[in-house]
């Protein structure tokens, strides 16, 4: 298959004459013939792996942005060992330089006092967080994680396009890319002697442990995320699981006496290290951005007190601004006594007169970008402007010169990408990650996240603009070559050459998840995950019962059974009351439209889709607590509940679809019981499911009016057994047609029936007794919320033991009314006891 690159720019795989570069020859040989059918099989395998692993990316403003499949190309970017060693040296130097700049600007500010940096460059930038000026982080390290976006110029040299110093994203995606590509291209991966990524994350764990103030022996480390709607939330959950730390949102943390605490079921646990994925100004609504609902009030005070370490340090986003880039060569000579090893793309800050004159006179050859990140202006390519547009841009620059940067337009190198059954060149940007070492210096990930443009020639490479990603393979040397090379090159991190052997047990002893100390928010969401799962199943079974009668008019008693089913839908708020009268005929356009809305209308609060969407959103909030299989089932359920085409809305097709949804919900319930450890998280999830099933059982009885005039209607008894999933049990035990007394006993009082109310109450009693006691002064007294919840469950069980409720309609009606009042109150008591805290463990 022919591949020639794109003319004047550098191509990563071929020379200008179309010949393979030496380090690509072995890979292409192992890849074999690029047969479209074989490549399609490989791509399908990669797509399925990404889907199974739940790898997603959210695009802001895109209706399809939530849970968008991660775009991964099969063909990796290959970097030879010699070239990578130079990149490592240059980036270690650059990370050290930027850390020194931050230390000065948030300390003595000698760079400004001496005139080496213009004051306007610092004090006009909102990225300079005055609230943390003078707060020295643990070990004097501001950049615990650093990433650089690199691009290759037409002459083959690597240049730095941008620095990511605030919350560098993408390392988790790079690891996931490696996991997938190394499996679908196993032979090529093995033959290429590709350097492993895992040691980098081991070093990252060790670094986080070392950041704990006062050398805490067993530090609590958390990853602070903006939440499931963030574009890279998958990575947040992925890294938290991989590093063995707790994923938290701002609401999970609180500051008391200048210490940060995690709200757990057992009280407030001290937090020692925060790996944040939240931008600087959102981290503390008291002293940074006052309208932030994502941060932790008082966090800046805790940082200044030295009781918690935030990585990266608050304010580190300052040096992401392009305004600093023209000054870095000079700063490197001043602070490190060295020349910058990897240059940045040439830039001119318009806040200086000579530089502004150069920019305005050469607009047709430059890219104009905002000098400060808070300006949020898209880059403008001068060559694409008309004469009038250039004049207007020049006027804007002269009006506010400090807000603009002129950047040399760099032709990005291209990399082969599999598109439309052929290899096509696409511009690329490679992001490389570094982590600070406990003893100083930086460790470089041997690889990174390569992103390529969606279209040929497009110079904006961004996932938000539809770009894709690649795995990055740093090819290893033979042992003898590597020893010779490292004797010549200075400054290569030792972790890349070799990892000091350490036992897994020793690593795990340093940092381990506190699985028993469940955050209150997580317990709350798991509780509601169980409730929404059960609520979705309840709605689904009612809908399936209706459609099974509509699609099979010859079914004995079908029309009669539609009446209690429609009454139940009316009671549950699924259809308007006046449509119940149409149930006897089973016809009518209004009935069909109402049923469609009860299934697919997400704006209908009681529809199946609305409940499934609540289930999906709640599951997303605790994604790090769910197995991949559980999350896959939840995602599948959400997709199965998307609106159907007109052809798929006929009664028979709808019935088949509802059957599939029942199966998926059953898979979720099975995974809950067979795959979750029996800790507090599972208990709260099962409490939610048992409580909702109990409430639903009472609703079924009241909605079908079995305690009223319908009590002797066989159609009602049949419907109750079907919706209570107890038909087979009834037939096995009683050998008769459905009758009122045995039906009520089976669905209300039988503690051996998993669908009976008594069974739910029995499990609730055991769960509540096993929960950790909340940190309340009177938690052991009879007046505590936990004790009150247990008492309500006991009272409900006593109600079911009254012999008259299954024989006497008045006793049954009274019992159902009492249960309808008591069961929801259990939820309120649990929320009061466990989902908000005012005391620490020491209180």
TrEMBL record:
Note one Pfam family from the annotation: CP_ATPgrasp_2
Residue ranges constituting the DUF403 domain according to the UniProt record? 518-835
Fetch the Gene3D superfamilies from UniProt.
3.30.1490.270, 3.40.50.11290
Q: Cite the Circularly permuted ATP-grasp type domain residue spans from the record.
A: 76-452
Q: Which domain of life is it from?
A: Bacteria
Question: Which segments of the protein form a coiled coil according to its record?
Answer: none
| Protein name listed in UniProt | Uncharacterized protein
Q: Which organism is it from?
A: Skermanella aerolata
